[in-house]
Design goal:
Blueprint (H helix, E strand, L loop, with lengths): L5 H25 L7 H5 L11
GO biological process, one term: proton motive force-driven ATP synthesis
Protein name: ATP synthase complex subunit 8
Main location: mitochondrion
């Protein structure tokens, strides 16, 4: 059974690493979160907090 040269293992590792990085970035950026609507942000209570120390 023939053995692979070390440069081939390095090239194989680099190719698999690049494909893993590309695959992960495509999966990360393929999901676009929906922007919250303005009605939800207006409903937030902006009253000051009363701290009783």
């Amino acid at each position: 059974m023939p053995q692979m040269a070390p440069i081939n293992w390095l090239l194989l590792f680099i190719i698999f690493s690049i494909t893993l990085i590309i695959f992960n970035t495509l999966n990360y950026f393929s999901f676009l979160p929906s922007n919250p609507q303005k009605s939800q942000t207006e409903k937030k209570n902006n009253s000051p907090l009363n701290w009783k120390w």
